[in-house]
Write a structure and sequence with these properties.
The protein is of the alpha+beta class. The protein folds into 3 domains: 4-47; 60-148, Homing endonucleases (Endonuclease I-creI); 171-248, Endonuclease I-creI (Roll), CATH 3.10.28. The protein contains 10 helices and 8 strands. It has helices spanning 4-15, 20-27, 31-41, 60-73, 95-108, 132-135, 153-161, 163-174, 205-217, 239-248, and strands at 74-78, 84-91, 114-119, 122-129, 175-186, 189-201, 223-227, 230-236. Strand 5 and strand 6 form a beta hairpin. The longest helix has 14 residues, at 60-73. The N and C termini lie far apart (50 Å).
């Protein structure tokens, strides 16, 4: 016997474009049972309050960090024999980031193997498993900035409990810490001043909003900077906010 949540979640996989065979293999539920649920339960998804992952993360801090990495530079792709691959692209220039990403995946899914796939200029930190789509329900066809990205209630609870880990994941994926400079006239002499600054850049309005909402909650002041006519950049330049970011995030390495 399966509860309603399990049945609805199974039908959601089919509604997302999965084949009957792959859903049966991933869930361990017979195709005959799934066919029966299609005729009995398809009108019932409206009863759901929120999606619940079939395997909740126990290390919630690591999950918050991995969620930030996934929203920035991650993707999920189906495996021909069922299950999915999670891939996080990490630039070769940041070997420390590659190790942090691998450690986070292991903490979230200790029983799933993690391996590195070398690509031109980057490494895809990759893990195969049967729970990545329910751990990251933002997965869907096409690019993230072309579809709506909203956290489920259980995900938002984790982000609220571990906001800095989530911000760190976003900055480590699509952000940076740089040194800007400007000049000022002092006593008739033009002097150069340097100051640190953080940026987060993402095409998705929804993902940028998740970033800025979380920054606001932890007391970081930010501004939106346009690239041409598109406000893809979130800038953190005020001294107090940069000090706060340095204490919790710091540069990539």
């Amino acid at each position: 016997m399966y509860d309603i949540a399990t049945r609805v979640r199974t039908l959601d996989l089919l509604a997302g474009g999965r084949s009957m065979n792959s859903v049966s293999k991933e869930t361990g539920i017979s195709r005959a049972a799934i066919r029966a649920w299609q005729s009995r339960l398809e009108p019932l998804p409206r009863l759901r309050t929120q999606a619940i992952p079939c395997a909740r993360p126990t290390d919630k801090a690591s999950y918050a960090y991995l969620l930030g990495l996934y929203l920035g530079d991650g993707c999920i792709s189906p495996h021909p024999r069922g299950g999915h691959h999670l891939r996080i692209a990490c630039a070769d220039a940041w070997p420390g980031l590659i190790e942090q990403c691998r450690a986070a995946i292991r903490a979230v899914r200790p029983d799933d193997k993690v391996y590195l796939l070398q690509r031109q200029g980057c490494v895809a930190v990759t893990s195969y498993g049967r729970h990545w789509t329910c751990l990251f329900p933002q997965h869907g066809p096409g690019k993230k900035h072309d579809r709506r990205i909203v956290l489920e209630g259980w995900q938002q609870e984790i982000v609220d409990a571990h906001p800095w880990e989530f911000i760190r994941g976003l900055i480590h994926s699509d952000g940076c810490r740089i040194t800007n400079w400007t000049t000022r006239m002092v006593g008739g002499v033009r002097k150069r001043y340097e100051y640190p600054r953080y940026f987060f850049t993402n095409k998705s309005d929804d993902i940028r909003r998740l970033c800025t909402d979380t920054l606001t909650k932890v007391g970081v002041q930010w501004t939106a900077l346009a690239r041409g006519s598109d406000p893809f950049n979130v800038s953190i330049a005020r001294k107090g906010s940069v000090v706060l970011m340095d204490a919790h995030i710091g540069p990539k390495y």
